[in-house]
Each structure stands twice: as structure tokens, then as C-alpha cells.
Write a sequence for this structure.
């Protein structure tokens, strides 16, 4: 087990290095990025004696972007391994500081949505499987499919329209109300929670469909298994068959997939945060990417690549942990 | 499920052919695999629903535009009433000049210095205590000569050439030597005159030969010069012009005032006649009358009002169209009322007057070329000392954000384009992007997966590592970055679309490759492949003729599901403004404007909500069909 984990970790690290190299190549070869924009703005300022080309090469030297791709990547990697990701260009603070500032908003947002998702999706998925081809099953299946098919931006806009614009229950975006500064600490907390409601609802609805379908499919598979027939044949009550024999087996794939999505809780919700102006990692990195902020973008991409790799690793390990029939190696 | 089909067939057959052996081949109606799949597919209600939705969507997006009269980038214009500036008015505070037509250009030029000082001189005259100064005042010109400003009435002044002229310069160092330079036109007054001048320097005047001369100090640079003036009696002929006062005349006009506007000669003639109290005059063989209407002097021509005199000046805002006298009179009265009521800056007063009908900045004319006049309502707004007249004018404008009408069923958008047409064309692009991307994914995926699965070993290892890498790349951030890059490159929208599709396809092939490889790995070991190998078929034939068709069902299912997710990705990108760009329409970028202004969220919900629903519907339909196909291909997998 330990050997497997170490082997996988090493392999993941290798993959990560390659992925980061690909991404670094892409970022470094982007023409007309942040530096060019800044240099163009500076060159047109009155009293500027340097030409645009001079400014560009000067800024590139200052920001460490004048190396060729391989050297640049090795330098970046060397710093990154030491936890040194440089200063963000568009937020003008060290990347890691900015990250530490905003990550918890994203995490809290994702965790709440995640808890709601699992709490709603798993029972409903099992219910749908139990009543296969029933009204409940069709309703749940259709709702799940609609959830899957709904683009995040459309759902977010719809929620904004109905609950923020028409009913005026929530603000249309942002994390703080107009009178935030006049509130006491508890009031500020409540105000922030109030602003998190719509994003959480969006994330939950978007995430619920897939999990519900997955649960239903796996429960159906389990319910068709021989040991369930045996349990029924033994004369066990339906409640015990489902709740004890079936449920535990259903949990195997579900724990795997849910566990695999745990690292993703840190990755932030790019679209949702951007649309609701929640200053989480998703929002910050969206604006970094659009603004051509290479240090922050590189950091965010490395971070999300690690999370993706961790997710797969975690689900593999959990699979073995939960299901004794599965052996690693 | 398949047992059930056979049961049905069993029930039917005996009625037609009762004698049938148990091993009779015709006893069981054998359906071809594809028919079997089809039969299973059409039993699935959701799949049928999905198919119907897709068919309708395709008809709507691909056939609809053929019958719909508008295209996606057609901008609609129309006449709209827009409140715009019509005229500007001002109460004139300064005197202006009308040149005597006999004055030539050179004289005018030489008089420009004096001209600039006329207004300040009049002010000095009005404030002067001296009665003589109130009626006439001398203005020195820059060439040393003098002019006299003579008051004619409170409202008019005339400038005359003074008889008091410079006859000699007496330079500073020449005083000692007694040398004077004489001006042109005066005979040499000789040494004696110079001596008399030198003697008179202190007192500022001297007499010589019975004539009185004045000496005026004129400092030029570092040395002192003296100018010697003399009243030469008869002088030169009087050149003069009129200057109007606060309450005095400027000239207004009828529709063809423009010609007179430039013609200050007419004004000069008319004013000189009005001033001298004449009731009629002729100008260039045309007869004009003058009458006084409650203090306003009106000049008539052929019995109708032609111009009036007032300190109030009005001109049309664009200076191209002429103002008619009826309008100007109304305008003046309104302004006077406003001044009486002490209306502040920004105060509005409406009035109506007969004025030319203006459409699209052009004065409308009837068949005979006469200007069409109508009662038009105006409003005057005070801006400091100016008064602007606003009126609703019909203008040819882009019809943006028009409400749904019979002409444009869903109205028009921010660029004045037909929303319904754009939805149709947008659907085309959205669906097309989906298909192209999925085809790219499938193409790369099948080749890579096929090679990996079939050959195994090193090749497999290499390709699967590549797949791992592509799995690990976060695709949404990459798409956002490239979208921002395309923005900064200001890429053409068509090139951009092609690039976007290529990138989407390139980022998505890994899943397909992994699936194909897995399928081929299991198929490779089956008997039919051993048979294929034994019969000596070529490798490519074995892969593409025997293996790939067996992977086809899963491929089709994955492609159908993939279509949905590509449509979602594309619309998300376009919604953020990083995908397909205007003027090309897609469902995503048509919703883009709600990100720009919060007000649009509510105001144009009737546009973006249906579009969003269309995206959902398309994706749901693809998912339903994909689900249905999977169940139909492999009933065991039924979920």
C-alpha cells in the first residue's frame, strides 16, 4: 500500500513537471501580454525618454521573463519547489500572500456546496434506483440531467434575475452589503453568509446532477447483484436489504468519487465566483488570466494540476481502502 | 428485453404459419443488429423526446434562416425622434461693426487695431464725466494716426478718420540736432520747424506759421520718439462704420437669410436708413420698408416681415439650416420672458412656433422646392448666457433594443440586429462548434487510442503518459488564457473561431483515447481477432475494419454526450466574451451583454432567458439521445 502510494506520488510528480512545462511554454510564448501592455502605456507617457522596445526588454529583465523557455522553466520550477512563486503582477503582492488571502472563501463556498450536494444527491439517487421506472425515478433522472445540462452562467444569471433583481432577497454580486462597515462582527459574518447563498445554491444545483446519476447507476448495479437476491430470498425486510446490504456496497464507488473530488474543494469555482464577484481563488485567477498576470496564472495552474492529480490518486487509494476485494499493484 | 422480443414473435408467428418445426430458421424473426438497436432506441421515451428536440433545433437553426428574411449581421435603421439642439440664442452685450461697403480690404486691415479697441472705448465714453468725451473720443491706431469715434445715438456709434494727423517724427537724439522726419505727403517744413518743435518739447505743443502742433511722446524700444500732430482742417474723406449697442439692431432674416447673413453691406445700408428714420429704402434695386412694432424695428419686403432689429441674436445650431423670422420672434419672446422671470441655468421653457420640418438633419421641401413649414414644439434651456432650443427631430438611427414587434419577432439587440435571426444563426455556430470539436476529438482519440491499444508495450506506455498529461491540464483556465490572448491579438472573428475549435478538440481527445484503448485491449484477445490475424489481414485493416467498428457504439455514445459538454464550454466562453465574437452570433455571446450592465439582466430577460433555455435544451437533448443510444447498443448496460 505504502509502496503503491509512493510510486504513484512519484509518477504524479513527473506528470506534474511535464504539465507545468507545457503550460509554462504556453504562457511564456503568449505575445502581447501584460508586459507589452504596460510598456505601451508607459511609452506614451509624457517625458518618457525610452522607446517601447527598450521598455519591454527592461521590464522583461526585471520580471525575469527574458530567459529562453527551458532556463525560464527551470528557474521557475526551482523557485516554486521552495514555495517561492514570485510577485503577482496585477495584484501587486506576493502570489502566495494573495492565495492565502482568498483561498478560504473558495474553500468555504465549495465545502458548503459539497455537503449539500452529497446530502441531497445520494439519498435521492438511491431512492431513484429503488423505484426504478417509477415517477420518482423519472423525476429525479430528468432533474439530474437538467442539472448536468445547465451551463453555470445561465443558472447563475437566472438565480440573479429571480432572487436578486426581481425578489430583491440578495445582492446581485459581491461579498459584502452596502452597510457592511457599520455592522458588528456577527452582523458582518451574517452579511457575508447572506452573500454566499446564491453562489452556494448555484454550485449545489450544478454539482447535484452528476452525483445523483452516479449514485442511481451504481445502486441499480448493486440491486441486481446476486447477494441482494440472496438477502431477499433469506426473507430479510426490504428496509434491511436496501439499508444494510445494498447501501454499503453502493457506497464503494460513491466514496471513491466523492473522495476523489475532495482536493477539488480548494480549486475554487472559476465561473460561479466570477459571476457573483466572490473574491475567491476562482475570481482572482480569472482576472489574473485575463490580465496576463503570468506568476499568478502559473501558480494557479500548478495548483489546479496538483489538485487534479491528487483527486485521481485519492480515489484510487480510497477504492482499495473501501473495497477489500481490490488490491493495489 | 431481447427475450421479450422473441416472445412477441412467438405469439405472432403461429397464427400465420401453424406448421413449423422447432429448428426452423424462419421461426424466429431475426432482426439485424442495427434494427435491433433502432427498435430498442425508439422504445425509450426520453431518447425519443431528445431526438425530436434535436430535429426541431436543427430545422430551426439550419433551415429556419433560409426562410427568415434577415441575416445575423444585418443592422436595422429607422426614423426615430431624438431630442436634439435646433438653435442657439444670445443677448448681445457688445457692439459689432458693419463696414461701409466703400471701404477696401487694405483699409479694413489697417483698421483692425482700432476695431479691437472700439468696445472698450465706448465703455470709457459711457463712463466719462466729460460731456465732450461722451459724444466723441479719439482712438489711436498702431500706425500713429488717429480716429474719432462719434456717438450717433445711444445704440450706434460711427468711426471717423480724424483730421488730426501725424505730420512728423521727432526722434530722441535728433532733438539735440533738431532733426525731424516728415511723413509722406507733407512738404519739408524745414529747419525752422524742427527748431520750433525742439523748443516746444517741454510744453507739448508749439505754434509754427500760425498753426498749432501737438507733440506726443511715443516710446519705441529704448529710444524716445515724438510724434507731431496737426489738425489739418479738411482731413480725408470720412470712413466710418456703425456699431450696434445693447439695445440696437442686428438683422434677422427669412428663410433665405443665409445670403444676407454674409452680406454685411445690406446690414450697413439697412441700418443707416433705419437710423436716419427713413421708412423705406432700396438696396440693389429691391424695395424694403421699415416699420416700428412696439419698439421692435422690423424691415419688410414686399409687404411681409423680412428682418427685425434686436440685441437678441439667434443662429441655427448646425448653421446650415436657416431660421425663419416667425421662429426667431417666438424664441426672442420666450427668452425675454425667461430673463424677466429670472430663470436660472438649466431652466426649461417650452414654446411652439412655425418652423421648417427637419428630418435626418435636412429641411423637408415639397415638390415645388418650397420649404415645408409646420407648427413645431420647442423648448428653451438656459446655459449661462446662451439659450439653446431643443426639438424632437426625426433621425435615421440604429434601432437598438427594440421591443418585439411583427417586424422583429423578438425585437432587436444592442447593435440593432434582429434577435430571432441571431438566435437561428447562433444555434448554427453553437451546434457546428460542437460537431467540429467532437470530430477532432474523435479523430485524434481513435487514432491514438487505437494505436496504443493494438500495439501495446512501449507505444501504449508513451501514449498513455501523454493521455495522463492531457488529463491533468486544467482546460477551462487554458481556454480563458487563449481567449484573452486572441483578444489582445485582435484576431479576426473567423480565425478565432477556427483556433478555438482546434484548441477545444485538442484538449479533449484524451478521454476518447483512453476509452478506445480500453475497448481494444479487451477486443484484441477475442476469437474474431485471432481469426483475422490467422487469415493474414493487414494491420491497418485489422484495426480499422475489425476493431474500430466494434468500438463504434461506445464512440457514438461518447460523441453524443461530448457534444453537450462542448456546447456548454463554448457558450460559457462566449458568454464571458472570450469565445466567438461579434458579429458572429452564438447562443453564448448573445447573452454576453448581461455581464456588462446589471440593468440588462432584468430589462432584456425576454431575450437571454429563452436563449439560455435553448442551450439547456440542446445539451439535455444530446444527453437523452446519448443515454438512449447507450441503452440501445448494450441493454446490459442499461442505466
Amino acid at each position: 500500500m505504502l509502496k503503491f502510494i509512493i510510486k504513484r506520488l512519484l509518477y504524479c510528480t513527473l506528470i506534474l513537471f511535464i504539465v507545468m512545462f507545457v503550460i509554462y511554454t504556453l504562457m511564456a510564448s503568449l505575445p502581447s501580454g501584460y508586459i507589452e501592455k504596460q510598456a505601451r502605456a508607459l511609452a506614451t507617457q509624457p517625458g518618457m525618454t525610452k522607446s517601447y522596445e527598450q521598455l519591454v526588454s527592461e521590464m522583461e529583465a526585471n520580471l525575469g521573463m527574458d530567459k529562453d523557455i527551458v532556463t525560464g522553466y527551470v528557474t521557475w520550477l526551482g523557485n516554486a519547489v521552495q514555495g517561492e512563486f514570485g510577485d503577482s503582477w496585477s495584484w501587486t503582492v506576493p502570489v502566495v500572500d494573495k492565495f492565502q488571502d482568498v483561498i478560504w472563501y473558495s474553500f468555504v463556498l465549495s465545502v458548503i456546496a459539497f455537503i449539500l450536494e452529497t446530502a441531497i444527491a445520494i439519498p435521492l439517487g438511491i431512492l431513484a434506483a429503488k423505484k426504478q421506472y417509477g415517477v420518482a425515478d423519472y423525476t429525479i433522472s430528468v432533474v439530474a440531467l437538467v442539472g448536468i445540462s445547465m451551463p453555470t452562467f445561465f443558472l447563475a444569471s437566472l438565480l440573479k434575475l429571480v432572487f436578486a433583481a426581481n425578489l430583491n432577497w440578495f445582492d446581485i454580486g459581491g461579498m459584502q452589503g452596502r452597510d457592511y462597515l457599520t455592522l458588528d462582527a456577527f452582523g458582518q459574518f451574517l452579511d457575508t453568509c447572506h452573500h454566499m447563498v446564491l453562489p452556494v445554491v448555484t454550485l449545489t444545483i450544478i454539482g447535484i446532477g452528476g452525483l445523483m446519476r452516479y449514485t442511481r447507476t451504481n445502486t441499480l448495479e448493486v440491486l441486481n447483484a446476486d447477494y441482494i437476491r440472496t438477502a431477499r430470498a433469506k426473507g430479510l425486510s426490504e428496509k434491511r436489504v436496501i439499508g444494510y446490504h445494498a447501501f454499503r456496497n453502493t457506497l464503494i464507488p460513491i466514496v471513491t468519487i466523492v473522495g476523489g473530488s475532495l482536493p477539488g474543494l480548494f480549486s475554487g469555482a472559476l465561473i460561479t465566483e466570477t459571476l457573483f464577484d466572490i473574491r475567491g481563488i476562482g475570481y482572482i485567477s480569472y482576472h489574473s488570466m485575463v490580465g496576463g498576470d503570468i506568476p499568478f496564472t502559473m501558480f494557479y495552474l500548478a495548483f489546479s494540476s496538483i489538485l487534479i492529480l491528487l483527486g485521481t490518486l485519492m480515489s484510487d487509494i480510497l477504492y482499495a481502502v473501501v473495497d477489500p476485494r481490490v488490491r493495489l499493484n | 428485453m431481447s427475450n421479450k422480443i422473441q416472445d412477441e414473435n412467438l405469439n405472432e408467428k403461429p397464427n400465420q404459419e401453424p406448421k413449423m418445426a422447432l429448428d426452423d430458421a424462419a421461426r424466429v424473426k431475426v432482426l439485424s443488429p442495427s434494427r435491433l438497436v433502432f427498435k430498442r432506441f425508439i422504445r425509450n421515451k426520453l431518447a425519443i423526446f431528445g431526438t425530436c428536440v434535436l430535429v426541431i433545433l436543427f430545422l430551426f437553426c439550419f433551415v429556419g434562416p433560409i426562410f427568415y428574411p434577415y441575416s445575423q449581421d444585418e443592422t436595422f435603421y429607422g426614423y426615430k425622434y431624438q431630442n436634439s439642439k435646433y438653435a442657439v440664442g444670445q443677448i448681445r452685450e457688445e457692439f459689432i461693426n458693419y463696414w461701409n461697403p466703400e471701404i477696401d480690404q487694405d483699409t479694413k486691415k489697417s483698421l483692425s487695431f482700432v476695431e479691437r479697441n472700439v468696445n472698450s472705448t465706448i465703455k470709457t465714453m459711457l463712463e466719462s464725466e466729460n460731456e465732450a468725451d461722451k459724444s466723441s473720443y479719439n482712438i489711436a491706431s498702431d500706425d500713429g494716426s488717429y480716429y474719432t469715434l462719434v456717438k450717433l445715438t445711444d445704440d450706434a456709434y460711427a468711426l471717423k478718420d480724424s483730421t488730426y494727423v501725424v505730420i512728423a517724427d521727432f526722434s530722441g537724439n535728433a532733438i539735440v540736432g533738431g532733426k525731424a522726419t516728415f511723413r509722406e505727403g507733407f512738404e519739408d517744413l524745414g529747419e525752422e520747424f524742427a527748431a520750433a518743435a525742439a523748443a516746444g518739447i517741454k510744453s507739448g505743443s508749439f505754434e509754427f506759421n500760425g498753426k498749432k502742433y501737438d507733440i506726443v511722446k511715443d516710446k519705441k524700444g529704448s529710444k524716445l520718439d515724438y510724434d507731431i500732430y496737426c489738425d489739418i482742417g479738411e482731413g480725408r474723406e470720412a470712413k466710418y462704420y456703425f456699431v450696434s449697442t445693447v439695445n440696437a439692431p442686428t438683422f434677422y432674416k427669412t428663410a433665405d437669410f443665409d445670403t444676407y447673413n454674409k452680406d454685411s453691406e445690406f446690414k450697413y445700408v439697412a441700418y443707416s436708413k433705419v437710423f436716419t428714420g427713413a421708412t423705406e429704402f432700396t438696396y440693389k434695386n429691391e424695395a424694403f420698408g421699415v416699420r416700428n412694432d412696439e419698439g421692435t424695428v422690423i424691415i419688410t419686403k414686399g409687404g411681409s416681415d423680412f428682418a427685425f432689429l434686436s440685441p437678441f441674436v439667434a443662429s441655427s445650431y448646425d448653421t446650415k439650416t436657416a431660421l425663419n423670422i416667425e421662429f426667431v420672434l417666438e424664441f426672442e419672446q420666450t427668452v425675454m420672458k425667461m430673463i424677466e422671470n429670472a430663470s436660472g441655468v438649466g431652466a426649461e421653457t417650452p414654446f411652439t412656433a412655425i418652423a421648417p420640418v427637419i428630418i435626418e438633419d435636412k429641411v423637408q421641401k415639397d415638390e415645388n422646392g418650397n420649404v415645408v413649414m409646420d407648427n413645431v414644439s420647442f423648448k428653451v434651456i438656459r446655459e449661462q448666457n446662451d439659450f439653446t432650443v431643443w426639438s424632437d427631430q426625426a433621425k435615421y438611427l440604429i434601432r437598438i433594443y427594440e421591443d418585439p414587434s411583427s417586424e422583429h419577432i423578438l425585437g432587436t439587440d444592442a447593435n440593432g440586429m434582429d434577435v430571432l435571426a441571431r438566435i437561428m444563426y447562433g444555434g448554427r455556430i453553437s451546434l457546428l462548434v460542437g460537431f467540429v470539436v467532437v470530430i477532432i476529438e474523435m479523430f485524434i482519440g481513435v487514432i491514438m487510442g487505437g494505436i496504443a491499444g493494438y500495439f501495446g508495450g512501449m507505444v501504449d506506455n508513451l501514449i498513455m503518459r501523454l493521455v495522463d498529461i492531457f488529463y491533468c491540464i486544467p482546460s477551462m483556465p487554458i481556454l480563458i488564457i487563449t481567449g484573452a490572448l486572441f483578444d489582445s491579438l485582435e484576431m479576426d472573428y473567423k480565425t478565432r473561431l477556427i483556433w478555438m475549435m482546434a484548441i477545444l478538440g485538442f484538449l479533449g481527445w484524451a478521454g476518447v483515447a483512453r476509452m478506445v484503448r480500453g475497448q481494444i485491449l479487451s477486443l484484441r484477445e477475442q476469437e474474431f481477432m485471432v481469426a483475422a490475424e490467422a487469415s493474414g489481414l493487414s494491420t491497418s485493416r485489422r484495426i480499422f475494419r475489425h476493431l474500430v467498428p466494434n468500438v463504434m457504439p461506445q464512440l457514438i455514445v461518447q460523441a453524443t454526450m461530448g457534444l453537450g459538454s462542448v456546447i456548454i464550454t463554448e457558450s460559457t466562453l462566449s458568454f464571458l466574451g472570450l469565445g466567438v465574437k461579434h458579429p458572429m452570433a452564438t447562443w453564448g455571446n448573445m447573452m454576453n451583454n448581461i455581464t456588462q450592465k446589471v440593468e440588462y439582466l432584468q430589462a432584456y430577460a425576454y431575450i437571454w432567458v429563452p436563449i439560455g433555455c435553448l442551450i439547456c435544451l440542446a445539451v439535455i437533448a444530446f444527453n437523452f439521445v446519448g443515454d438512449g443510444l447507450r441503452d440501445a447498443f448494450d441493454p446490459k448496460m442499461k442505466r
Chain A touches chain B through 53 residues (CB under 8 Å). The mean pLDDT of chain A is 86. The longest helix of chain A spans residues 185-223.
